[in-house]
Records
---
Amino acid sequence: MKTTWAAVAALSMISAAAIAEDFPPLQRVPVLEEAIPSANPAIKLVRGARVRFAPRQTTGLHRHPISVAGVVTAGSFVFKSEGQPEKIIKTGDAFFEPAGVVSERFDNASSTEPAELIAFYLTDAKDRPLIEMLNTK
């Protein structure tokens, strides 16, 4: 029985070594670096959320009382912050919405496919609102 377990362990190590040879050494590739604005409260809590958008779904004019960082996990979005040019962010792209800055667009770019993102809200308290919708009138 000991011999069987030893053989299994040896084969597992050989298999793991063979798999490791197929990949380059671990690398950290920068995807986002943004200064946290002074409008952001002292960060004491990070809240994460998966947000799914239907085809053509828009967010509407809004701002966050806290900064938001995230990554697109499916599809693509039309993203425009006040004073910045509109851009398309795609699967794997990171984004940042600074506290207090109006987001004019954060819309699913596709009229036929859903889109998804993971957002991390940099906040000071669990009960702080994450988003403020703005009147477009």
---
Amino acid sequence: MAQLLTDDEVDTALVALEGWRHVDDALVRDIPITPDNYRWLSEAVMNEAKALDHHPDIERTGGGIRFRLSTHSAGGVTDKDVELAAHIDQVVDGAARDRG
């Protein structure tokens, strides 16, 4: 089982994860996107998640998409969540470059 991170460890990890925040027992990031970009972005993130064998909660919001990362078996944030957050950032940053 993955080891739960302390609040201090999560805060340290968040320094490198722009746009992410620690909410309750999860890392959360809201990304503004147009409705027509929801599908490809969620699919791209799920491909990363599958490769890492760790899956996010993804939800459509009024102005975009929300990713919520938590290791349910550990009851909170673990290294797996931090790693997946970094991969999500790479997907989003790459998409911004490709579309920008």
